[in-house]
């Protein structure tokens, strides 16, 4: 429930931010009635694009069964984890120029008299956020059933409501909690969740590997625990399971799990670390 709520909350706020920027800019333009209609048509088309992707992913998951289904679930978890890493890195590098970039793109479409171009811009912007949400939610919730599935859906609904409230609060009270602070906090939470999805993908991969005829060393690398901290926090307990689901923590990680999670955080650090400012020395005339 917590994972689905967080994912829908974060992605919905991003989508609302994009829509809000375009809507506020278009309202300042003369004769923007048709452009605003095209904007909302693009938003609807973007949501439809995300829904179509979700339907396709669910159909593929239902169609594949047995070992094929397990590999598919493993691939989706891996894609979701890498997509989170890419999304956080992209927002980290382009977040400051997002507003200007969107407004310049909208101005270019309007100057060309292309209402369809504006529709396409809104559709791709919203569809991108919606598609990411679909992949993340599928990676997290594909094994949910019964009351767990109900709580998972409720979490998603609560996440959307929370996004509406968060967007309104950020717009009204930016002096107390800025957009920059919002993205900094949510980036950390997203990266932790990306690590959890990566470990879930590795669990499925290791499970498939254990049933195959592979060299003995691979059983050791992917199966034998490197250490045991279950006396401190057992990931099979309620608290440990929650921490594992949100961060990728394992009480008895294999060598492969420790190395892969370490490489994940090394890649995140390398991508997000501050870049030195290029200094241009003044040249004598």
TrEMBL record:
Primary localisation category: membrane
One Pfam family this sequence matches: FTR1
Gene Ontology cellular component terms for the protein in this record: high-affinity iron permease complex
Bilayer disposition of the protein: Multi-pass membrane protein
Cellular localisation: Membrane
Membrane-spanning parts: 38-58, 70-89, 110-127, 152-170, 182-202, 251-272
GO molecular function, one term: ferrous iron transmembrane transporter activity
Keywords for the protein's UniProt record, in alphabetical order: Membrane, Transmembrane, Transmembrane helix
InterPro entries in the cross-refs: FTR1/Fip1/EfeU (IPR004923)
Source species, domain of life: Bacteria
PANTHER family: IRON TRANSPORTER FTH1, PLASMA MEMBRANE IRON PERMEASE
Family recorded in the similarity comment: Belongs to the oxidase-dependent Fe transporter (OFeT) (TC 9.A.10.1) family.
Protein name: FTR1 family iron permease
Organism: Stutzerimonas stutzeri (Pseudomonas stutzeri)
């Amino acid at each position: 429930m917590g994972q689905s709520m967080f994912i829908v909350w974060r992605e919905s706020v991003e989508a609302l931010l994009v829509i809000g920027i375009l809507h506020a800019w278009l309202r300042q333009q003369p004769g923007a009635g048709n452009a605003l209609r095209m904007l909302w048509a693009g938003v609807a088309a973007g949501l439809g694009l995300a829904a179509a992707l979700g339907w396709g992913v669910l159909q593929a998951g239902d169609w594949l069964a047995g070992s094929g289904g397990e590999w598919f679930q493993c691939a989706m978890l891996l894609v979701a984890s890498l997509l989170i890493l890419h999304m956080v890195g992209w927002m980290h590098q382009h977040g400051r120029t997002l507003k200007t970039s969107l407004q310049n793109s909208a101005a270019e479409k309007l100057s060309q008299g292309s209402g369809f171009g504006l529709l396409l811009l809104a559709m791709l912007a919203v569809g991108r956020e919606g598609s990411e949400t679909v992949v993340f939610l599928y990676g997290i919730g594909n094994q949910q059933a019964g009351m767990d599935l109900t709580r998972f859906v409720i979490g998603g609904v609560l996440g959307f409501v929370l996004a509406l409230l968060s967007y309104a609060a950020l717009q009204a009270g930016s002096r107390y909690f800025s957009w920059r602070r919002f993205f900094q906090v949510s980036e950390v939470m997203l990266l932790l969740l990306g690590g959890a999805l990566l470990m879930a993908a590795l669990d499925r991969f290791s499970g498939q590997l254990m049933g195959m005829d592979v060299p003995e060393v691979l059983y050791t690398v992917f199966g034998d625990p490197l250490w045991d901290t279950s006396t401190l926090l057992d990931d099979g307990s309620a608290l440990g399971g929650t921490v594992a689901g949100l961060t990728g923590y394992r009480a008895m990680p294999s060598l492969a799990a420790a190395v892969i999670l370490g490489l994940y955080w090394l890649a995140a650090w390398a991508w997000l670390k501050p870049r030195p400012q290029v200094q241009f020395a003044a040249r004598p005339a």
